[in-house]
Design goal:
Residues 1-111, 130-193 form the Exoribonuclease phosphorolytic domain. With 208 residues, the protein is α+β, with helices and mostly antiparallel strands. Strand 1 (2-4) and strand 2 (7-16) form a beta hairpin. It has helices spanning 49-52, 56-70, 75-78, 96-117, 148-153, 182-207; strands at 2-4, 7-16, 30-37, 82-91, 130-138, 141-144, 156-163, 168-175. The chain contains 6 helices and 8 strands, in the order βββαααβαββαββα.
């Protein structure tokens, strides 16, 4: 369970000795993700997506989680198996995709630890940490880890996915009713790096 303020996400990882059919006999492993929100995770009740089908938002977020986590994996070292990471939002107050990525890495780390303990992999396939955090400009000030009221009123907001070593995996950033300068973007990236360092420290402490 990852809790970032009032955003709570349950992250689990499942090891499957099968890979998608298009990857058979490649010798490569795969990491994928699924994401969902409970009906009362938000301030007002949503309909279950099982009833009406996945929204475009859900599909986009789970693809983001999957490709973010794959960035830290040595796929040949993982072997021809798949790890599926499920991220279920129990309570949402902004930043659910970032919390899912950060917590998803912990679940992935624990699953790989299990493979290593069982001798099913010969070397650690996880090459780095992955953490994500939101940043934005709210009321004219740069803010780290926006909650829902801040996110809904921010003139600029972004999601920053980074490795522990400091390289970037993905930036999703946009302005709403405003614009932002290159200097402001740099400020938000610097702020995101501070958050990333704090998250990696916690990741390390709970998986050591």
């Amino acid at each position: 369970m990852i809790r970032c303020g009032d955003t709570h996400v349950l992250c689990t990882a499942t090891i499957d000795e099968r890979v998608p059919h298009w990857m058979k006999n490649t010798g490569l492993g795969w990491v994928t993700a699924e994401y969902g929100m409970l009906p009362r995770a938000t301030h007002s009740r949503m309909n279950r997506e099982a009833k009406k089908g996945q929204s475009g938002r859900t599909q986009e977020i789970q693809r983001l989680i999957g490709r973010s986590l794959r960035a830290c994996i040595d796929r040949p070292a993982l072997g021809e198996r798949q790890i599926m990471v499920d991220c279920d939002v129990i309570q949402a107050d902004g930043g659910t995709r970032c919390a899912s990525i950060t917590g998803g890495w912990v679940a992935l780390r624990l699953a790989v630890n299990k493979l290593m303990k069982a001798g099913m992999v010969t070397s650690d396939p996880i090459i780095d940490h992955v953490a994500a955090v939101s940043c934005g400009i709210y009321a004219g000030q740069p803010v780290l880890d926006l909650d829902y009221p801040e996110d809904s009123e921010a003139g600029v907001d972004g999601n920053f996915v980074m490795t522990g070593r400091g390289t970037l995996i993905e930036i999703q950033m946009s302005a709403e009713g405003s614009t932002f300068s290159r200097d402001q973007m740099t400020t938000l990236i610097d702020l995101a790096e501070i958050g990333r360092d704090q998250l990696v420290t916690v990741q390390t402490s709970v998986t050591a």
